[in-house]
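Question: Hello, beginner here. Any chance you could explain the protein record under this note? Any guidance would be welcome.
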Amino acid sequence: MSEQLRTPLKKPIWTLVVLNLADGFLTYWGLLAGAIEEANPLLSGLPPLAIFSVKLLLSACLAAFLFTPLVRLESRVWRYFLLAANFVYAGILSLHVIWIALLYL
């Protein structure tokens, strides 16, 4: 049995970890540059470093799922949930690309 078949949720979880880290870094950079404001009402009152720290901690927690039985679940619900979360994060990162382009081009 291949690694992909034994751990069907591994790639979507890793993708979410990477997208969350990228979002945290770009948000931190955008906040420091004064180019953006934090849109998440739970994080908007925090300083940029605290926001980045929260996102870094969230990425670490997500990565921890890779060492649990969750990655071996053959669940369509979990797979679709992770794919939807990745799609949302990809959209958020697209917004980051737009403001970076507007700011530096």
Summary: The CA atoms of residues 10 and 71 lie 5 Å apart. Helices lie at 3-6, 10-33, 48-64, 76-104. The mean pLDDT is 89.
